[in-house]
Write a structure and sequence with these properties.
By secondary structure, the protein is mainly alpha-helical. It is built from 1 helix and no strands.
């Protein structure tokens, strides 16, 4: 019986780490999108009016 209880504990830990991986990945890609938007905004407002 103790083995079964340990399996449940391991599954709970894996679910927690999966959700934290999803959150950290979302934050990382959100930062990429924000940086991309800032670069595009800079190009539209400062570089394109020069032409």
């Amino acid at each position: 019986m103790p083995e079964r209880n340990e399996d449940i504990e391991i599954e709970k830990r894996e679910k927690k780490s999966d959700s934290s991986k999803v959150a950290s990945t979302f934050i990382k890609y959100a930062a990429y999108v924000i940086i991309l938007v800032i670069i595009l905004w800079f190009i539209v407002n400062y570089i394109l009016p020069m032409f």
